[in-house]
């Protein structure tokens, strides 16, 4: 991942969260080797429109940044977290098996839920 990180530009990062944006994630995926075992985790914030409608976009932005921080804290070396768009985040998780990927995804879920 470090060698790839050096090839990203400011246009590949989301300004609000500091995570890779959709373009950055797609660039990362295009550079993966075929033999790598990678699982895709999609995180969507439930009822996010209500946050913006009731509390305003500044609070919504703070909520997005907060969730991004939680996802970053949960990530392991080699995992890639990005903002896919709006209130959607994507995690690219390297895991040896489906069961291992599910356990990692559940750890992310629990962290965001708490």
Task: Give an overview in words.
- It is a single chain.
- The chain is an alpha+beta fold and 114 residues long.
- It contains five helices and three strands, in the order ααβααββα.
- The chain has helices at residues 2-5, 22-30, 48-55, 57-74, 98-113; strands spanning 38-44, 80-85, 88-94.
- It has a three-stranded antiparallel beta sheet with strand order 1-3-2, sandwiched between helices.
- Helix 3 crosses helix 4 (57-74) and helix 4 (57-74) crosses helix 5 (98-113).
- The longest helix is centred in the middle third of the chain and has 18 residues, at 57-74.
- The protein starts with a helix and ends with a helix.
Descriptive labels:
single chain; 114 residues; alpha+beta; 3-stranded antiparallel β-sheet; 5 helices; 3 strands
Shape: globular
Q: Compute the gyration radius: what is it?
A: 14 Å
Q: How do the strands line up in the largest sheet?
A: 1-3-2
As an assembly, this protein is single chain
Structural class by helix and strand composition: alpha+beta
Put the structure in a nutshell:
By secondary structure, the protein is α+β, with helices and mostly antiparallel strands.
């Amino acid at each position: 991942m470090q060698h790839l990180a050096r090839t990203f530009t400011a246009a590949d990062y989301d300004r609000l969260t500091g995570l890779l944006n959709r373009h950055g994630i797609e660039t990362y995926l295009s550079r993966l080797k075929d033999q790598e075992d990678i699982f895709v985790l999609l995180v969507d914030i439930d009822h996010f429109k209500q946050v913006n409608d009731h509390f305003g976009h500044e609070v919504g932005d703070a909520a997005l940044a907060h969730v991004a921080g939680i996802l970053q804290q949960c990530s392991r070396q080699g995992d890639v977290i990005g903002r896919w768009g709006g209130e959607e985040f994507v995690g690219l998780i390297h895991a040896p098996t489906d069961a291992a990927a599910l356990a990692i995804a559940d750890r992310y879920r629990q962290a965001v839920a708490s």
